Each structure stands twice: as structure tokens, then as C-alpha cells.
Amino acid sequence: MKIANVAGRATLLVSDFEGIDVASASEGKFGPGLGSVYDDWDGFLAWAESAPARDTVPVSRERLESPSPHPGQIIAVGLNYAEHAAESGFAVPDRLPPTFTKFASALSGPDSEVVLPEGGNTDWEVELVVVIGRTARRLAEADAWQYVAGLTVGQDISERITQSAGPSPQFSLGKSFAGFAPVGPWLVTLDELPDRDDLALGCTINGEVVQDGRTRDLIFGVPALIAKLSHIVTLNPGDLIFTGTPAGVGLGRSPQRFLKPGDRLDSWIEGIGSLHQIFVVDEPGV
Ligand code: ZN
Asked: Which of 4, 137, 104 is CA-nearest to residue 64?
């Protein structure tokens, strides 16, 4: 099952271009927003099994918004692929990965224009993003997938100067400029995926491949991440977890490379879909 946020309305997709409006089809039991769907995920799944596939509505990409519009928490982890830890000049984490937040005001839908912070070094990080579907607290790793509503694509866009400003690293601000957390294009439930533990992911800049990895190379895979996090924070329906990025970011290149005005960043994950970002400069007075 694929569920999209079409201009604020939960929409069960029947194709990439057409879907069932959840609020209308359920006569108000679920929806209109996706938040209420995650709040009663089990009830929603039971209803969706036999959702009437009539009265479909067109789905156009420019109307898509984040598949979790108001997450209570956006948790992001760093250094979760060995080659990326190496290119960043850090040791591979052992007990816990470095964990930070992307503030919710940075969220956007899958296709967007992103303003480059002035004087910044803005970098790309394609990531598998988990959407939580059930309240999770002190889980065993073996049970963790059951708490996932589905998966989606995210970009952990990062301004590297802000990220490393100050006496100790403080990732959250440098990764939370407006539009720095595009997510989508929709939520895909686990049964739709070829292998939930091994998905190809990558991104291109102006058509040139810069990241090309597989989620089987995650140091802490989705179950391990959820289990470890749930021993510290309670994970709630609608929460997002950015799981970390594979190698190929601009910071780790020689010479280093960062996004420029006019660049187009296309990000994708096998079985889920793609994001499209265009980078622009803020023009004062416009
Ligand atoms: Zn990241």
C-alpha cells in the first residue's frame, strides 16, 4: 500500500497518478490528514484492506506534501554507513550512533525549491526514512519492524559550516534550514518492498550520480535503530527517523563540493520513489 499526502489529505494510491481520498471513502472515519491515520494505524489498515476503489481522485506531484505532516519527533542518525563514517573522518560508532533532530519546520514535500543559506556549504545526504505506526517503548530488535507504518525517501540536507560551528558539533541547526528535510513522495508499507532490509538508494546532481548505496550496509539497521532509540525515547505514531546516509556526500570529496544555485538534486530509493530539489539563492526584495 502507498499512502500520499495530497494537499493535506491522506490518499490511498491506486497508481502514481490516482488515489482514493481516505476521508471521503471512509465517510470521515479516517483523515482528512495523515496524522489521524497514524494515530489509529491498526484501524486504518483493517479499513484499507477493503477500501472502496471508486471515486478516485487525480494525484499530481506538485500537490504532494510530507507523508507525515506533523511528526512529534524527527530523529536523525549520523555515521550509519562505514564508508560514510570514513569519508567524514570519524570512527564507526559501536554502541549508539550519533543522534540529532531535524526541526519540524525544515520539512517539505518531495518536490521543492530550496534556498541556499548565504555563505554556506550546503551538502546532500539521501536517506531511508522510517515512519512510526505504533507507540514504541523499550523494544526488542526482533519486534521492531512491527512498529513501522512504512518507509519513505528523505534528504538530510546539511549546511556544513553551521553544523560544525561552536566548540562541540551541533548537527541539528545546520540541518534545519527551511526546506532542508524534503520527504516523500509517499509512504510505502513494508509488504510492497522487494526486501525491507536491502534497498538500493542514491542521488544525482544535474544527472551525475553522487551517492549509490544499499540499506543492507547500514551499521545499525532499522530494527536495531528502533530498538536502541526506544530504550531512551518513546517513539510515537507519525514520528520520522532519518536512518543515515551512504558515502558520496560533498564534504567527503577531494576537492570538496557543495550545492550551487541552479543545481538539481534527484534522490531515490528502490521500491519507494524519488525526490526532486532545485537550489536557488534568496534574492533580497523579490
Ligand atoms: Zn544524515
From this structure: 4
Q: How far away, in angstroms, is 15 Cα from ligand 1 center?
A: 30
Cα(38) to centroid(ligand 1), Å: 24
Prediction pTM value: 0.97
CB-CB contact of 169 with 158 (8 Å):
no
- For ligand 1, the distance from its centroid to the CA atom of residue 242, given in whole angstroms, is 7
All residue ranges of the chain with pLDDT < 50 are none
Query: Which cell numbers hold the place of 58?
Result: 487525480
Give me ligand 1 centre to Cα 77, in Å.
6
Q: How many CA atoms lie within 13 A of 136 on its CB side?
A: 34
Q: pLDDT tens digits for 223-273?
A: 999 999 999 999 999 999 999 999 999 999 999 999 999 999 999 999 999
Ligand 1 centre distance from Cα of residue 136 (Å): 22
Beta bridge partners of 218: 81
Q: What's the gap in Å between 193 CA and the centre of ligand 1?
A: 23
pLDDT digits (tens, 9 = 90+) for 154-181: 999 999 999 988 888 789 999 999 999 9
Query: Which residue ranges form the domains of the chain, and what is each CATH number?
Result: 2-65 (no CATH), 74-281 (3.90.850.10)
In angstroms, what is the span from residue 276 Cα to ligand 1's centroid? 17
DSSP 3-state of 208: strand
Compute, in angstroms, the gap from residue 84 CA to the centroid of ligand 1: 10
How many C-beta atoms surround the C-beta of residue 21 within 10 A? 18
C-alpha cell at 133: 505506526
Q: Report how far residue 243's alpha carbon sits from residue 75's, in angstroms, rounded to the nearest whole number.
A: 8
